[in-house]
Specification:
six-stranded mixed barrel, 2 domains, Barwin-like endoglucanases, endopeptidase fold (from Nostoc punctiforme), alpha+beta, 368 residues
Protein backbone atom coordinates (compact mmCIF):
# COMPACT_ATOMS: atom_id res chain seq x y z
CA UNK A 1 0.00 0.00 0.00
CA UNK A 2 1.08 3.56 -0.61
CA UNK A 3 1.58 6.26 1.96
CA UNK A 4 -1.38 8.07 0.44
CA UNK A 5 -3.77 5.37 1.54
CA UNK A 6 -2.13 3.46 4.39
CA UNK A 7 -3.08 5.97 7.06
CA UNK A 8 -6.71 6.40 6.08
CA UNK A 9 -9.28 5.43 8.63
CA UNK A 10 -13.09 5.36 8.71
CA UNK A 11 -14.58 8.77 9.40
CA UNK A 12 -17.79 10.03 10.99
CA UNK A 13 -21.06 10.53 9.18
CA UNK A 14 -22.22 13.85 7.72
CA UNK A 15 -22.10 16.87 9.97
CA UNK A 16 -21.31 20.57 10.05
CA UNK A 17 -17.89 20.20 11.67
CA UNK A 18 -14.84 20.47 9.39
CA UNK A 19 -11.54 19.26 10.88
CA UNK A 20 -8.44 20.61 9.15
CA UNK A 21 -5.60 18.28 8.22
CA UNK A 22 -7.58 15.02 8.32
CA UNK A 23 -7.05 12.58 5.48
CA UNK A 24 -9.47 12.72 2.57
CA UNK A 25 -11.91 9.86 2.79
CA UNK A 26 -12.09 10.29 6.57
CA UNK A 27 -14.14 13.40 7.46
CA UNK A 28 -17.23 14.93 5.86
CA UNK A 29 -17.57 18.62 5.22
CA UNK A 30 -21.08 19.84 6.04
CA UNK A 31 -23.27 21.06 3.20
CA UNK A 32 -25.98 23.65 3.64
CA UNK A 33 -29.51 22.54 2.86
CA UNK A 34 -29.82 24.84 -0.13
CA UNK A 35 -26.51 23.69 -1.63
CA UNK A 36 -27.36 20.06 -0.98
CA UNK A 37 -30.74 20.48 -2.62
CA UNK A 38 -29.07 21.97 -5.68
CA UNK A 39 -26.51 19.15 -5.90
CA UNK A 40 -29.13 16.44 -5.58
CA UNK A 41 -31.39 18.09 -8.16
CA UNK A 42 -28.53 18.34 -10.66
CA UNK A 43 -27.61 14.69 -10.30
CA UNK A 44 -31.04 13.04 -9.96
CA UNK A 45 -31.09 9.96 -12.15
CA UNK A 46 -32.81 9.98 -15.51
CA UNK A 47 -35.15 7.16 -14.51
CA UNK A 48 -36.65 6.65 -11.12
CA UNK A 49 -35.04 9.75 -9.62
CA UNK A 50 -34.54 7.89 -6.35
CA UNK A 51 -31.66 7.85 -3.89
CA UNK A 52 -29.70 4.60 -4.15
CA UNK A 53 -29.26 2.37 -1.13
CA UNK A 54 -26.10 0.79 -2.51
CA UNK A 55 -23.66 1.42 -5.31
CA UNK A 56 -24.26 -0.84 -8.30
CA UNK A 57 -22.84 0.44 -11.54
CA UNK A 58 -24.73 -0.63 -14.65
CA UNK A 59 -23.44 -1.22 -18.19
CA UNK A 60 -21.64 1.39 -20.25
CA UNK A 61 -23.74 4.42 -21.02
CA UNK A 62 -26.46 3.34 -18.60
CA UNK A 63 -26.68 6.62 -16.69
CA UNK A 64 -24.58 5.62 -13.70
CA UNK A 65 -25.39 6.37 -10.10
CA UNK A 66 -25.12 9.08 -7.49
CA UNK A 67 -22.58 8.40 -4.77
CA UNK A 68 -20.96 10.21 -1.88
CA UNK A 69 -17.52 11.52 -2.76
CA UNK A 70 -14.63 13.41 -1.19
CA UNK A 71 -11.34 14.74 -2.49
CA UNK A 72 -7.87 14.05 -1.16
CA UNK A 73 -4.29 15.25 -1.56
CA UNK A 74 -2.93 18.74 -2.00
CA UNK A 75 -1.65 21.29 0.47
CA UNK A 76 -4.72 21.02 2.69
CA UNK A 77 -4.29 17.27 3.10
CA UNK A 78 -0.60 16.84 4.08
CA UNK A 79 -1.10 13.28 5.40
CA UNK A 80 -1.91 12.02 1.89
CA UNK A 81 1.23 11.36 -0.11
CA UNK A 82 1.44 11.62 -3.89
CA UNK A 83 1.89 7.91 -4.68
CA UNK A 84 -1.24 5.84 -5.14
CA UNK A 85 -1.74 2.28 -3.95
CA UNK A 86 -0.98 1.24 -7.52
CA UNK A 87 2.49 2.82 -7.29
CA UNK A 88 1.54 5.61 -9.72
CA UNK A 89 2.67 9.16 -9.07
CA UNK A 90 -0.68 10.91 -8.83
CA UNK A 91 0.83 14.30 -9.63
CA UNK A 92 1.80 12.83 -12.99
CA UNK A 93 -1.63 11.19 -13.33
CA UNK A 94 -4.06 13.77 -11.95
CA UNK A 95 -7.04 12.02 -13.58
CA UNK A 96 -7.12 9.49 -10.72
CA UNK A 97 -9.63 8.29 -8.15
CA UNK A 98 -9.58 5.94 -5.18
CA UNK A 99 -12.25 3.33 -4.59
CA UNK A 100 -13.12 3.23 -0.89
CA UNK A 101 -14.03 0.47 1.51
CA UNK A 102 -10.78 -1.31 2.32
CA UNK A 103 -7.00 -1.31 2.54
CA UNK A 104 -6.22 -3.43 -0.54
CA UNK A 105 -7.47 -3.61 -4.09
CA UNK A 106 -9.33 -6.77 -3.07
CA UNK A 107 -11.10 -5.24 -0.09
CA UNK A 108 -11.84 -1.72 -1.37
CA UNK A 109 -15.24 -2.66 -2.77
CA UNK A 110 -17.46 0.39 -2.33
CA UNK A 111 -18.09 0.40 -6.11
CA UNK A 112 -17.91 -3.37 -6.53
CA UNK A 113 -14.15 -3.91 -6.32
CA UNK A 114 -13.16 -2.39 -9.65
CA UNK A 115 -9.89 -3.53 -11.25
CA UNK A 116 -6.89 -1.23 -11.29
CA UNK A 117 -7.13 1.43 -14.05
CA UNK A 118 -10.90 1.02 -14.46
CA UNK A 119 -12.16 4.23 -16.11
CA UNK A 120 -15.19 6.01 -14.68
CA UNK A 121 -16.95 9.10 -15.90
CA UNK A 122 -17.27 11.47 -12.96
CA UNK A 123 -19.82 14.29 -13.15
CA UNK A 124 -20.23 17.25 -10.83
CA UNK A 125 -22.51 20.15 -11.67
CA UNK A 126 -22.13 20.90 -15.37
CA UNK A 127 -18.70 19.33 -15.80
CA UNK A 128 -17.82 15.75 -16.61
CA UNK A 129 -14.53 13.92 -17.20
CA UNK A 130 -12.93 10.47 -17.14
CA UNK A 131 -10.79 9.30 -14.20
CA UNK A 132 -8.93 6.04 -13.60
CA UNK A 133 -8.62 3.89 -10.49
CA UNK A 134 -5.07 4.22 -9.23
CA UNK A 135 -5.72 4.28 -5.49
CA UNK A 136 -7.94 3.07 -2.64
CA UNK A 137 -8.94 4.03 0.88
CA UNK A 138 -11.02 3.08 3.90
CA UNK A 139 -13.65 5.76 3.48
CA UNK A 140 -16.23 6.60 6.12
CA UNK A 141 -19.89 7.39 6.76
CA UNK A 142 -22.44 8.54 4.23
CA UNK A 143 -22.24 11.79 2.31
CA UNK A 144 -25.53 13.62 1.78
CA UNK A 145 -27.36 10.39 2.58
CA UNK A 146 -25.47 8.51 -0.14
CA UNK A 147 -22.98 5.65 0.20
CA UNK A 148 -19.46 7.06 0.52
CA UNK A 149 -17.76 5.33 -2.37
CA UNK A 150 -15.00 7.36 -3.99
CA UNK A 151 -12.13 9.75 -3.32
CA UNK A 152 -11.24 12.16 -6.12
CA UNK A 153 -7.62 13.24 -6.43
CA UNK A 154 -7.57 16.96 -5.70
CA UNK A 155 -6.27 18.01 -9.11
CA UNK A 156 -8.99 16.02 -10.85
CA UNK A 157 -11.64 17.44 -8.53
CA UNK A 158 -10.37 20.91 -9.33
CA UNK A 159 -10.67 20.26 -13.05
CA UNK A 160 -14.38 19.60 -12.49
CA UNK A 161 -14.74 22.89 -10.65
CA UNK A 162 -15.16 21.26 -7.23
CA UNK A 163 -14.02 23.68 -4.51
CA UNK A 164 -10.91 22.56 -2.67
CA UNK A 165 -11.98 23.61 0.85
CA UNK A 166 -8.58 22.76 2.36
CA UNK A 167 -8.86 19.20 1.08
CA UNK A 168 -12.05 18.54 3.05
CA UNK A 169 -14.74 18.86 0.37
CA UNK A 170 -17.40 16.16 0.22
CA UNK A 171 -20.62 15.90 -1.73
CA UNK A 172 -22.58 14.00 -4.35
CA UNK A 173 -21.16 13.08 -7.75
CA UNK A 174 -22.45 10.85 -10.50
CA UNK A 175 -20.24 7.94 -11.53
CA UNK A 176 -20.78 5.74 -14.56
CA UNK A 177 -18.93 3.36 -16.79
CA UNK A 178 -17.89 5.08 -20.02
CA UNK A 179 -18.60 3.28 -23.30
CA UNK A 180 -16.09 0.63 -24.31
CA UNK A 181 -13.23 1.73 -26.50
CA UNK A 182 -14.88 0.70 -29.80
CA UNK A 183 -12.41 1.30 -32.59
CA UNK A 184 -9.78 2.27 -30.05
CA UNK A 185 -9.75 -1.32 -28.81
CA UNK A 186 -9.82 -2.64 -32.34
CA UNK A 187 -6.76 -0.59 -33.18
CA UNK A 188 -4.88 -1.58 -30.04
CA UNK A 189 -5.18 1.84 -28.47
CA UNK A 190 -5.62 2.45 -24.77
CA UNK A 191 -8.09 4.73 -22.98
CA UNK A 192 -5.51 6.43 -20.76
CA UNK A 193 -6.06 10.03 -21.87
CA UNK A 194 -6.04 13.10 -19.62
CA UNK A 195 -9.34 14.26 -18.20
CA UNK A 196 -11.34 16.35 -20.65
CA UNK A 197 -14.19 18.56 -19.53
CA UNK A 198 -17.30 19.03 -21.60
CA UNK A 199 -18.16 22.64 -22.34
CA UNK A 200 -21.13 24.30 -20.74
CA UNK A 201 -24.12 24.40 -23.10
CA UNK A 202 -24.71 27.39 -25.34
CA UNK A 203 -28.46 26.86 -25.01
CA UNK A 204 -30.26 27.65 -21.78
CA UNK A 205 -33.13 25.25 -22.45
CA UNK A 206 -34.50 23.70 -19.30
CA UNK A 207 -33.48 20.05 -18.93
CA UNK A 208 -36.17 17.42 -18.79
CA UNK A 209 -37.26 16.38 -15.29
CA UNK A 210 -34.81 13.93 -13.72
CA UNK A 211 -32.39 14.18 -16.63
CA UNK A 212 -28.74 14.21 -15.58
CA UNK A 213 -27.28 17.64 -16.24
CA UNK A 214 -24.41 15.32 -16.36
CA UNK A 215 -23.01 16.00 -19.60
CA UNK A 216 -23.44 19.68 -19.42
CA UNK A 217 -22.39 20.56 -22.98
CA UNK A 218 -25.68 19.71 -24.60
CA UNK A 219 -29.29 20.87 -24.37
CA UNK A 220 -31.90 18.15 -23.87
CA UNK A 221 -35.13 17.44 -25.69
CA UNK A 222 -37.96 14.96 -25.16
CA UNK A 223 -38.48 11.91 -27.36
CA UNK A 224 -35.94 9.56 -28.90
CA UNK A 225 -34.73 11.85 -31.68
CA UNK A 226 -32.22 14.66 -31.37
CA UNK A 227 -33.23 18.08 -32.65
CA UNK A 228 -31.27 20.53 -34.79
CA UNK A 229 -31.58 23.92 -33.09
CA UNK A 230 -31.81 27.28 -34.90
CA UNK A 231 -28.24 27.98 -33.81
CA UNK A 232 -27.07 24.94 -35.80
CA UNK A 233 -26.24 23.05 -32.62
CA UNK A 234 -28.24 19.99 -31.55
CA UNK A 235 -30.28 19.02 -28.52
CA UNK A 236 -29.90 15.42 -27.34
CA UNK A 237 -32.77 13.15 -26.27
CA UNK A 238 -33.06 13.32 -22.49
CA UNK A 239 -33.27 9.53 -22.26
CA UNK A 240 -30.35 8.81 -24.59
CA UNK A 241 -27.28 7.00 -23.22
CA UNK A 242 -24.55 9.22 -21.83
CA UNK A 243 -22.29 8.42 -24.79
CA UNK A 244 -24.87 9.79 -27.24
CA UNK A 245 -25.09 13.05 -25.31
CA UNK A 246 -21.30 13.25 -25.25
CA UNK A 247 -21.09 12.77 -29.01
CA UNK A 248 -23.65 15.52 -29.57
CA UNK A 249 -21.86 17.81 -27.11
CA UNK A 250 -18.60 17.29 -29.00
CA UNK A 251 -20.34 18.05 -32.30
CA UNK A 252 -21.76 21.26 -30.90
CA UNK A 253 -18.20 22.37 -30.16
CA UNK A 254 -17.27 22.48 -33.86
CA UNK A 255 -20.53 23.22 -35.70
CA UNK A 256 -19.89 25.66 -38.53
CA UNK A 257 -16.14 25.17 -38.74
CA UNK A 258 -14.84 25.59 -42.32
CA UNK A 259 -14.25 22.49 -44.43
CA UNK A 260 -10.70 21.98 -45.68
CA UNK A 261 -9.54 18.67 -47.12
CA UNK A 262 -7.07 17.22 -44.59
CA UNK A 263 -8.07 19.85 -42.02
CA UNK A 264 -7.99 18.93 -38.34
CA UNK A 265 -5.61 16.00 -38.76
CA UNK A 266 -2.34 15.97 -36.83
CA UNK A 267 -3.91 17.58 -33.76
CA UNK A 268 -5.08 15.72 -30.63
CA UNK A 269 -8.80 15.04 -30.82
CA UNK A 270 -9.26 16.95 -27.56
CA UNK A 271 -8.25 20.16 -29.36
CA UNK A 272 -10.61 22.40 -31.33
CA UNK A 273 -9.14 22.83 -34.80
CA UNK A 274 -9.71 25.90 -36.97
CA UNK A 275 -10.82 23.72 -39.92
CA UNK A 276 -11.97 20.12 -40.38
CA UNK A 277 -12.65 17.55 -43.04
CA UNK A 278 -15.14 14.69 -42.92
CA UNK A 279 -13.01 12.16 -41.04
CA UNK A 280 -11.41 14.56 -38.57
CA UNK A 281 -14.82 15.99 -37.63
CA UNK A 282 -16.41 12.56 -37.13
CA UNK A 283 -13.39 11.46 -35.08
CA UNK A 284 -13.71 14.55 -32.87
CA UNK A 285 -17.30 13.51 -32.08
CA UNK A 286 -16.34 9.91 -31.37
CA UNK A 287 -13.58 11.08 -29.07
CA UNK A 288 -16.17 13.10 -27.17
CA UNK A 289 -17.51 9.76 -25.89
CA UNK A 290 -14.00 8.26 -25.61
CA UNK A 291 -14.63 5.87 -28.50
CA UNK A 292 -11.24 6.74 -30.00
CA UNK A 293 -7.94 7.66 -28.43
CA UNK A 294 -6.89 11.29 -28.32
CA UNK A 295 -4.14 10.68 -30.89
CA UNK A 296 -6.28 8.85 -33.47
CA UNK A 297 -6.36 10.61 -36.83
CA UNK A 298 -6.96 8.21 -39.71
CA UNK A 299 -8.71 8.87 -43.01
CA UNK A 300 -12.34 7.96 -43.63
CA UNK A 301 -11.52 4.51 -45.03
CA UNK A 302 -10.21 3.39 -41.62
CA UNK A 303 -13.67 3.93 -40.15
CA UNK A 304 -15.02 1.19 -42.42
CA UNK A 305 -13.74 -1.20 -39.72
CA UNK A 306 -14.83 0.86 -36.71
CA UNK A 307 -16.79 -0.85 -33.93
CA UNK A 308 -19.37 -3.37 -35.09
CA UNK A 309 -20.98 -4.04 -38.46
CA UNK A 310 -24.34 -2.59 -39.45
CA UNK A 311 -26.53 0.24 -38.18
CA UNK A 312 -26.72 0.93 -34.46
CA UNK A 313 -29.67 1.82 -32.29
CA UNK A 314 -28.37 5.31 -31.54
CA UNK A 315 -25.28 5.87 -33.67
CA UNK A 316 -24.50 4.73 -37.22
CA UNK A 317 -21.37 5.66 -39.13
CA UNK A 318 -21.30 5.45 -42.93
CA UNK A 319 -17.75 5.27 -44.23
CA UNK A 320 -16.04 4.82 -47.57
CA UNK A 321 -12.61 5.52 -49.01
CA UNK A 322 -13.79 9.00 -50.01
CA UNK A 323 -16.12 10.22 -47.27
CA UNK A 324 -17.65 9.51 -43.87
CA UNK A 325 -20.79 10.81 -42.16
CA UNK A 326 -22.86 9.59 -39.24
CA UNK A 327 -26.31 9.61 -37.67
CA UNK A 328 -26.64 10.33 -33.96
CA UNK A 329 -30.07 9.88 -32.39
CA UNK A 330 -31.72 10.33 -35.78
CA UNK A 331 -29.91 13.43 -37.07
CA UNK A 332 -26.96 13.45 -39.43
CA UNK A 333 -23.46 14.78 -38.86
CA UNK A 334 -21.96 15.67 -42.22
CA UNK A 335 -19.76 18.21 -43.97
CA UNK A 336 -22.35 19.39 -46.52
CA UNK A 337 -26.09 19.48 -47.16
CA UNK A 338 -26.06 16.30 -49.23
CA UNK A 339 -29.83 15.75 -48.94
CA UNK A 340 -30.73 19.05 -50.59
CA UNK A 341 -33.07 21.83 -49.56
CA UNK A 342 -34.16 21.72 -45.93
CA UNK A 343 -31.14 19.66 -44.90
CA UNK A 344 -29.85 22.29 -42.52
CA UNK A 345 -26.38 23.76 -42.43
CA UNK A 346 -24.58 23.97 -45.79
CA UNK A 347 -21.31 22.98 -44.13
CA UNK A 348 -19.87 21.02 -41.23
CA UNK A 349 -22.52 20.30 -38.66
CA UNK A 350 -25.90 18.74 -37.96
CA UNK A 351 -28.31 18.00 -40.81
CA UNK A 352 -31.98 17.12 -40.49
CA UNK A 353 -32.56 14.90 -43.53
CA UNK A 354 -31.51 11.39 -44.58
CA UNK A 355 -29.04 11.16 -47.46
CA UNK A 356 -28.15 8.25 -49.71
CA UNK A 357 -25.83 5.67 -48.17
CA UNK A 358 -25.02 3.89 -51.44
CA UNK A 359 -21.37 2.92 -51.56
CA UNK A 360 -20.83 3.32 -47.82
CA UNK A 361 -20.15 0.74 -45.12
CA UNK A 362 -22.40 0.99 -42.06
CA UNK A 363 -20.75 0.58 -38.65
CA UNK A 364 -21.72 1.42 -35.09
CA UNK A 365 -20.10 1.65 -31.66
CA UNK A 366 -20.63 -1.41 -29.48
CA UNK A 367 -23.75 -0.97 -27.34
CA UNK A 368 -25.01 2.05 -29.28
Amino acid sequence: MSASSSNRRPGPGPGPVVVAGVIAGAVLAGLGAAVLSMVISVFTQGSGCGTPDAVTLGPAGGGGQLVGASEYGGAGDPTSATVGASGANLLEHPDSYAELGGNTFQTATAIGGLPYMTPLRITWGRHSAIAYKRDLGLGGGQVAGLPRAIDLWWQFAGSLGIPYERGLWSGAVRIERPPQAGAGGLLGETPQQPARLLATPASTSDPAPCAAGALGGVALTSGERAQVLPSGQAAAPADAPAAVKEIIAAGNEIVGKPYVYGGGHGLPLSAIASVYDCSSSVEHLLYGARLLSVTYGAASAALESFGQAGPGQWVTIYASADHVFMYVAGIRWDTHDAAGAGDGSPGIGWHALVRSSDGFVARHPEGL
